[in-house]
Amino acid sequence: MYLLRAQEVDNTGTLDVELELHVDNIPPYAILSHRWGSPADEPTFKELMCQTAAVKQKKGYRKLLSCCALALEYGLSYVWIDTCCIDKSSSAELSEAINSMYSWYEASNICFAYMEDVPPGDYIMDDRSAFRNSIWFTRGWTLQELIAPNEVLFFDSGWSLRALGSKSTLSELLSSITGIQEEILTHREKLHTASVAQKMCWASRRQTTRVEDEAYSLMGIFGVSMPTIYGEGRKAFLRLQEEIMKGSADHTIFAWDSDEDHEYQGMLAKSPQSFRQSGHFTSMSYNEFADRYYSENADLQPYYTMTNFGLQIQLPIVSMSPHFEGYYFSFLAAFHEDRSVIIFLRQRDDRPAGHFFRTHFNGLRVSADPCPN
């Protein structure tokens, strides 16, 4: 990985900054979490490698210097910043960096979160504070940048040496803003203890500039890797879900809803926004699922996989006939608090027997009520 190396020039207060490549024996480093400005304002990898005079006039260069100066205050000579430590002219290097980014934030000694829209003196505990309403909390990439590091320090627009607070001291407030459990934020509980639906819910109100980044920004949170293909659009999120299913039996990946009024849909969601109301869905062990919904001698197949006909999965299905002809509901291995979770299905005459589609019933595609009216 490339790191910025910062050092003070002859005790003048002036900083000298240069990029260094580190393959093995990565030195201790600070890492920056921030909202990008205009691309024209941010220093690039090429500009820093060439040390052009123009780069020092950019607004983002002042942010870079402030971050490096702060790192030195914390005894760290190296800094990683996403705007300039990735050679984005190389698609292979960009893909490797995106797949590695969660681990880089996780391995950092400290993360500085720069809140450019939070003025000095902001009272962050006020419900209307600039901190609570910062755009930093609405960006897709900053989700993993909040979760992965052991510690995050928050700084206002003036880069005050006294931080607004830290992830550990502000965990209750951060949880209320983001919906992420305090135990996950502070690493008292492992990230894998949260269900797929809960993680998707955390991302559901966040935005990315590129639609593909809705998926790419979540790879580290779900512990998966996949090639980045800018231009594939919504297919990226479908690929993400397929990768998650390869290593997880968590049925809450199917516990999503949608405002779209299509009669027939597949089992996978089109975007994280479909999980906006899914934060309370938790996973049920397959043994408990089998005990609840199958007879003792049932031939159970707990695995599921994507095929050329769609998702192949074994679920208990209940017909809603004769009151609602052609409608079915199916139980998932999931809980909503202490209630069962069901999805609604329909069959189509033009498909083989046993082939079902997701559908909506009374405006819902997923419900925690096993007896819908």
UniProtKB/TrEMBL annotation:
Question: Any idea where the DUF8212 domain is?
Answer: 235-324
Q: Name one Pfam family in it.
A: HET
- Please state every residue range assigned to the domain named Heterokaryon incompatibility: 29-117
Origin: domain of life: Eukaryota
Q: Which protein are we looking at?
A: Het domain protein
